[in-house]
Give the backbone structure.
Amino acid sequence: MEGTSPPKILLRDLSMTFPGAMNGVPLPVFERVNLRVEEGEFVCIVGPSGCGKTTLLNVIAGFLKTTGGHVLIDGEEVLVPDHRRIFIFQECGVFPWLRVDENVGFGILHSPKENRRRIIRHYVEMVGLTGFEKAYPSELSGGMKQRVEIARALAANPDVLFMDEPFGALDYFTRLRMRAELVSIWEREKKTILFVTHDVEEAMQLADRVVVMSRRPATIRTIIEITLPRPRVLDAQEYIDMRNGIFEAMGLDHSGLGSASDAKKSSD
Ligand SMILES: Nc1ncnc2c1ncn2[C@@H]1O[C@H](COP(=O)(O)OP(=O)(O)O)[C@@H](O)[C@H]1O
Ligand SMILES: [Mg+2]
């Protein structure tokens, strides 16, 4: 193994087949996935719908048992989920019967009361929900609920965050704001993040590296390092070139898409 310490996450020849998924015929979902993620890295996984992104994340998190290869976190094989790693789903996972502060404090029920109160205050403020501590989720917008979920995940002080299209159900402007907020939280907290999306631009705005998956049975097509400084300017030429490179790696024709600057001009 290279380096002195083991990587945060290491995938070795990881493969997954659902036995008998299609009328008794096995369904190979992904094959020979090899990936090394360093501590504190923000990695996005992009690929077409149905290529196996959610399955891959579930295997890495230990919710699903792989049918081939290995997942190692901190050098140890992952066989079951672990409370140090938290999963944030697309569908809002906040508990509707708990208030905002109770939701945020859910993962730290064992903490001494004063400490718990302080942590809740800190993360409620971090996601911009101060003043809404006593609100129920039904009184909040979709973006606010998703921020509650992020605050709850961070309050539990995980060392890895798995995010499965967490902003997919939000409207366009909320999604842009949530991405910017996630980047600024990550810059402060430096958690290791594995973020799945089918949205190439979302991946480019967020990630240190973008892992591009092929169609099913999926393999890693390419891994693109995004060196642009954050916050990233969507219409910078470098950004457009990289984005087009990702579309090409995914086998998509981007010729009809124009450039982000064209889109901006036409909306001015
Ligand atoms: N528990 C399961 N049993 C059988 N097939 C499944 C199961 N979960 C997902 N699949 C299939 O595996 C493929 C990949 O699904 P998924 O990981 O959800 O893709 P993605 O998240 O990239 O859209 C799909 O064809 C899906 O129908
Ligand atoms: Mg999915």
